[in-house]
Each structure stands twice: as C-alpha cells, then as structure tokens.
Design goal:
Layout (H helix, E strand, L loop, with lengths): L14 H8 L13 H9 L10 E3 L2 E3 L9 H9 L4 H8 L7 H15 L3 H4 L15 H11 L7 E7 L2 H14 L7 H15 L5 E2 L6 E6 L5 E5 L2 E9 L35 H12 L4 E6 L8 E14 L8 H12 L3 E9 L2 H8 L4 E8 L6 H9 L5 E5 L12 E15 L2 E8 L5 H6 L5 E2 L2 H5 L4 E10 L3
Parallel strand pairs: 3-4, 3-5, 9-16
Antiparallel strand pairs: 1-2, 5-6, 7-9, 7-10, 8-9, 11-14, 11-16, 12-13, 12-15, 13-14
The structure holds zinc ion (2 copies).
The site of one zinc ion has 8 residues, from helix 4.
C-alpha cells in the first residue's frame, strides 16, 4: 500500500478523532472564481502563447509553458496529457449549466473544434489528475448503500484516503495549469459523491462532524469502510441484589475465551449476568445493535447493592440498525428483563461527551454498612465511638484487596456525617456520607490498620463487615 496521507495517527486519539483526521480536507466551500471577460479575450486573441520550449511527452509534443486554464492553450494542454472530463470541468475554470463529466465534455469538444488535431495528440487514457477515480463514484456509492440496507441513518460523513504521490502530482498539475481556485481532488471527489447520492434521491444530510454514518474510501484500493456510529443513552440504575457485577466479567479460568471451558460452561463469563447486560441486552435487541459498552459513574463491589436514585451511567449502543425508539418502551424492556435485580426510572439520549462527564464526576455518597463484632453490650460506648468518626478526615492506604491494580498511596478522605446507628446483639449498622473515593469496608474493619482511624480502632474490637449498600450517589 502506498504511503497515504495523513501521516501517523497519534495513539492517544480516540476513534472519533481518528475519523476526523481522515475526513476530507475542508469540503472547499469556495466556488470557482471565474473571469469570463478574460476568457473571451483569450479566445479572440490571435497572438500565440510563447511556445518555444516544447519537449517530448509520451511521444507527443507538450507545451510546458501553456498558460493555465481557462485559456484555450491551457485547456488544450491538459487534454493532451490525458485529463478526464471530470477533472477538465474541475480545473477548466469555466462556468456551465452541466456538471462533472458532462461539463468537461463540453470543454473538450470546444477544444477539438479549435484544434482538429488535438484529439489525436492525447497521450494517455488514465487521467493524471485522478487516475480515473471519478468513474468509480457510482460503484462506491452503490457499495455504501448496499452495506447500509436495513440501517437507519440521516447523516453521513465521507472521508477519502488518497495515495500521497497522486495528491502531489495532482496538486502540481492543478496549480500549474488549473484555473485559479479549482477544487482540489479530494474535495471534488467528496463533492461528486454527495452529488451522486443526492441525485438518487437518498434522503441524507452530509455533515462534517457527528454523523450517523462515517464512510472512509481508500482511493488506491477502492476499499470502502462504512462505520455506523454508536448512539448513547444516559440513565441511573439501582442494583437491588448482591453478587451481580456491574460489567461483563470474563471467566477467570479461560479469560473469556470460552471455548470448551468447563468452569464457565463455554460462556466466557465469570458471572452469567451483569448490570451491563441486564440493561444493555434488551436495548441491543430493540435497536438491532451489535453490542454495548457500559460507562458507569464509578462502580460498586459485586456484593454491594446500589439503591436510592441509582448510579448514573452511559450505555453505548454499537452499530445500531435503529437510531430511534420510544424511551418508555426501552425502560419497560429493561425493567422486565432484569426482573427486580436491576431497575431504571428514566433514560435520555446523549452524546459521547456525556461519558467523560459521568466518568469524571466526584460525587459524595451515602452508605449503610452492617458489621459483626464481639461484645457490643456497652451500646452507649459503641454508639459514641462510631459517632466520633463524623466529620473526621481519615487516612487510607491503598486497600490490600485492590493493591494489585491500584498504585500504593495514602489518601485523605472526609467522613462527612454518620447517623442511624443501630446495635442488635453482636451486630451493628450505621449510615454515613463520605467524600468520593472513600473505601467504606476498610473504614469499618481498618484493613489491618491501613485505614486510620476506623470503626475497629474506635471501638477497639475486631469488626467483620456483613454487607454494604450504596444509599445515594449525590450527583446532580
Ligand atoms: Zn481525472
Ligand atoms: Zn471459562
């Protein structure tokens, strides 16, 4: 494959940015700048352009000092070097009723009428400006629409990838012989594709950002990549049961490869269900999509419930056939599918930027936690000890249980408030509101002294956490 433009795509660019890089360089909004007066004058002038420096070009004499189009000698020159009718129209600099090849053909016939021998002087069949790419436009458009049959969309963005040497050669010829302000090849190709689609009455808008469909055409191989862009839904979920992971969790034994794994019965999953799939699968089916990605505002441990108004999330629906569906129906499908394990109250459509907003949010949260300890008989002492944590800034070293995936450091986190303390025999529970990023279980059992102070240190008894619920995520 030839070296194409643009050069190296930065690895940190996300998908969206990458596509933007390939998108046709500025759909040239400037039209042709024409000076018809000058053209007429040139046509009437008998004075030949200086032609003393001819040399051989593919067996024919080519005048390298030809003036640029729209001068007749300029047009004659580009015809000699084999320009196609599309490019002749594009760089010929003449206003016309016709478009594309038809308009170029008019210019060509005018030129043949001026010079009877011109036709026989043409040196080659392959247009040196476009390598006859314009002839493939019908074929390209057909393939794009074939691959989109059954897919809803209203906007498309086209990008064209051209070999660098073709672009350079085209630019050289166009800037030397083309009329001023001629369309560059890339924009002209994109424009021709748009025109072809419009003339076949397809109801579609062409956009430069956030399209439903991105099409990348490789001008060298004529490969056409059609990308149906994802759609995004924002909502909040409640997780009403324990032992349910937020996202798909690959099987530990086969690492998700599934084939013949006894441990996961070939599913590739450690847990058969997840919040992601309980919510995402009915939506994927309803919208005829390929897959989903789940972007939560943080996540609770697998054994932790998430109650109250729920945890904000963005569901990314990949390659959907339908881009619209009544939201009420989607909510019903989710709640029915999750049968009381997960619930959602509302949904709204959003765009990709909502993911960053959700991921970047640092909200305080309220929890209820229950633990067991020996000898909680002195209820007043225990209650006072737990209450003493209210308003305290604690030091938390990275918990042992996550140290394999988190950097070791000590964080300072504020326990905003503590209330609803309840003691029942050897068990106690209480609610607490904490700064984002507080490890709550560790705040109770101290994680072997890595969290200071803790409930364990305050009551001076070993504490075993029984369960934890997220009561509220205080996001807007
Ligand atoms: Zn051409
Ligand atoms: Zn497995």
């Amino acid at each position: 494959m030839a070296e194409d433009e643009p050069k190296a795509v930065e690895p940190e660019l996300d998908e969206e940015d990458e596509w933007q890089l390939y998108a046709s360089a500025g759909y040239a909004s400037t039209g042709f700048i024409l000076d018809e007066g000058a053209t007429a004058e040139d046509e009437n002038s008998d004075e030949p352009w200086f032609d003393g420096d001819d040399f051989d070009f593919g067996g024919n004499t080519v005048n390298w000092d030809a003036p640029p189009c729209p001068a007749p000698l300029g047009i004659a020159h580009v015809i000699k070097i084999g320009i196609c009718d599309y490019c002749l129209h594009r760089i010929g600099g003449r206003r016309s009723e016709e478009r594309g090849a038809e308009a170029g053909a008019v210019l060509r016939h005018e030129a043949y009428a001026r010079d009877e021998e011109l036709q026989s002087k043409t040196t080659q069949d392959l247009c040196p400006l476009c390598e006859n790419l314009f002839e493939d436009i019908g074929n390209i458009v057909e393939r794009v629409f074939d691959s989109l049959s059954g897919t809803d969309f209203s906007t498309i963005q086209f990008g064209i990838h051209l070999p660098k040497d073709l672009i350079q050669e085209e630019d050289r010829i166009r800037s030397r012989y083309g009329a001023p302000a001629s369309y560059p090849l890339k924009s002209a190709l994109v424009e021709a594709i748009h025109h072809r689609i419009r003339s076949s009455n397809e109801e579609v808008d062409f956009v430069k950002e956030r399209p439903d469909i991105m099409v990348l055409v490789d001008g060298l191989t004529l490969r056409v990549d059609v990308d149906v862009r994802p759609i995004f839904l924002y909502g909040r979920y409640r997780k009403l049961v324990r032992d349910l992971p937020q996202t798909r969790w690959p099987c530990r034994a086969c690492r998700g490869r599934a084939d013949d794994c006894e441990s996961c019965n070939g599913t590739g999953l450690q847990y058969p269900d997840s919040v992601q799939d309980l919510i995402g699968e009915p939506i994927r089916e309803a919208l005829g999509a390929d897959d989903t990605s789940f972007h939560g505002m943080g996540r609770e441990d697998i054994d932790v419930r998430c109650l109250g108004s729920g945890r904000p999330f963005v569901l990314e629906v990949k390659r959907p056939s339908k881009r619209n569906h009544p939201l009420d129906d989607l909510i019903c499908r989710v709640n029915e599918n999750a049968s009381g394990r997960v619930e959602i109250d509302s949904f709204c459509w959003c765009d990709r930027s909502k993911i960053h907003e959700v991921k970047g949010s640092r909200s305080e949260k309220t929890y209820t936690i229950r633990f067991r300890a020996d000898d909680l008989a002195d209820e007043e002492m225990v209650t006072n000890a737990i209450s003493s944590l209210s308003g305290v800034v604690i030091d938390q070293e990275t918990p042992k249980r996550v140290s394999h995936r988190r950097a070791a450091k000590t964080r300072k986190r504020k326990v905003v408030s503590v209330d609803s303390i309840l003691i029942e025999g050897n068990e106690a529970q209480f609610s607490l509101r904490c700064e984002a990023g507080t490890y709550i279980k560790e705040l109770v059992h101290s994680d072997e002294g890595r969290t200071k102070p803790s409930v364990q240190s305050a009551i001076d008894r070993e504490c075993e956490v029984l369960w934890l619920d997220v009561e509220e995520i205080h996001a807007d």
